[in-house]
Structures are given as C-alpha cells and as structure tokens.
Amino acid sequence: MSFGGHVIRTRKIGIMGGTFDPIHYGHLLAAEESFFALDLDEVIFVPTGKPPHKKMRRVSSTEDRYTMTLLATLDNPHFKVSRIEIDRNESSHTVDTLREMRHWYAPDSIQFFFITGLDAVLDITTWKEYTALPSLCNIVAVNRPGYQVGKLEQLPEIFKGNIVPLEIPLLSISSTEIRRRIESGKNVRYLMPELVERYIYKKGLYKRIGR
Ligand code: NAP
Questions:
Q1: What is the C-alpha to C-alpha distance for residues 42 and 109, in angstroms, rounded to an integer?
Q2: Predicted model pTM
Q3: Could you tell me if the CB of 51 is within 6 A of ligand 1?
Q4: Which helix (H) or strand (E) holds 61?
Q5: Is residue 117 within a helix (H) or strand (E), and if so which, with residue range?
Q6: In this predicted model, what pLDDT tens digit does every residue of 166-205 receive, in sequence order?
Q7: CA of 65 to the centre of ligand 1 (A)
Q8: Pair 9, 3: CB distance under 8 Å
Q9: Ligand 1 pocket, mutate which of 19, 59, 86 (most atoms under 8 A from CB)
Q10: Which residues, including other chains, have CB under 8 Å from residue 145's CB and lie 6 or more apart?
Q11: Which of 156, 161, 190, 203 is most buried, taking the most CB atoms under 10 A from its CB?
Q12: Which tens digit of pLDDT belongs to each residue from 6-46?
C-alpha cells in the first residue's frame, strides 16, 4: 500500500483467543510457532470475557484469567495482552472483537490471524455471524499431535483457503487436565510458567471447595 509516496507494509497481527483457564505452555508455544511460521509482527492474547459457549462450567474470574495471561507473556517482547473482551459486559463474540480491533489500525494496513485450538475451530459454524469471519481474518487452527486435522475439510466452502492448520510439537497439555491435577493435588510443575503456577496457588484457584 502507498500513502503520500511512502510504501506502507501490511502488518500481520496474530490474535490469540482463548479462555486461558489457565494459560499453559501449549498456548505459549502455539503463539510463538505462529509468530515464526506466519512471519507475524506481534501476537495479541485476548482472554475471553463471558464465554457464550461455557455456561455449563464455572470459569475463573475474568481478572484472574487476564492476570495469568499477563504473567505468562511478560518476558516475550512480541506478545501483548488485550482487555478488549474482559472489559466488555456482554458475552464475547469473536466477530465483534475482530471488528472492534480493526478500528485500532489504519484501513488496509493490517492482516489479522485469529489463532485458536482445532477443537474450537471445528465448532465455528455455531459462532455468531461465522460467515463474516473469513473477510475479517485468517484462522489458524492449532492442533495437538494425533487430532483429526482432516475434519477441517467438512467446514463450509467459505473457509477454504482461509484456515491455516498448525501442528505444535507439544505434549498433551490442556487447561482441563491442569485444573483436574490441581483439584486432586497432583504435580503441575513445568506445564505452565512458574509465575502462573504461583498465582494459582496464591489465589486458591481450581480447588474442589466451592466448585
Ligand atoms: P475451548 O473450548 O476452551 O478450547 C477448544 C480447544 O482449543 C481446547 O482443546 C483448548 O485447549 C484449545 N485452545 C483454546 N485456545 C487455544 C489457543 N489460543 N491456542 C491453542 N489451543 C487453544 O475454546 P475457548 O478457549 O473457549 O475459545 C477459543 C476461542 O474461540 C476464544 O477466543 C473464543 O472467544 C472463540 N469462540 C468464539 C465463539 C463465538 O464467537 N461465538 C464461540 C466459541 C469460541 P485448552 O483447554 O488447553 O485451552
């Protein structure tokens, strides 16, 4: 793009959406691998506010999930964290977040890559205004070894060429498994940054009591 005789390079922004309850090394590695594989300028972590699809389980408070995400990303200069969904009072919908974030940048100066888990991407046809998503971003579907990436073929035609599958060479760490381990007093060391682990214990998150 040219502006006043100057060529403006399109910035490539990764948007890492997730509940992050808690954030772990799988998420951080997915963001870092996306950064290098897609030649991104930065990755913005967007912890969900009130997830519309998580009414069945108690999710940790938005502030706890935001703080853990901040602690986990502190030491990486190309990672940022946004409160855009945390500060929204109503349910979080990706389409609204992407539309709002587009206003932060000059028109046509950016390309968004929305990064999330393959399982979340396979449910994309249940998301609000999902048909609008390909015009707003590319979608990076992060896969754990052994999952069925072939299922992406079953998504509607509009997602053809829009979804980038990315396999991360990592263990089977999941937030669910971490919560279970903490609930039953098992070891979680080395599954997430130490600061996040310390925060979880200090705040008493994921204990059985009150759940
Ligand atoms: P989820 O059901 O918690 O996660 C689905 C799977 O993807 C899990 O295996 C999860 O692993 C993994 N995952 C989640 N975020 C990831 C990430 N950034 N990188 C790598 N793996 C990731 O899904 P969720 O976290 O609630 O939602 C994911 C994103 O989709 C959020 O940004 C959410 O807002 C969006 N979403 C939007 C709508 C909508 O607009 N209506 C509906 C659903 C989801 P862990 O359990 O280990 O995290």
A1: 14
A2: 0.93
A3: yes
A4: none
A5: strand 110-117
A6: 988 766 789 999 999 999 999 999 999 999 999 999 999 9
A7: 13
A8: no
A9: 19
A10: 167, 169, 170, 172
A11: 203
A12: 666 799 999 999 999 999 999 999 999 999 999 999 999 99
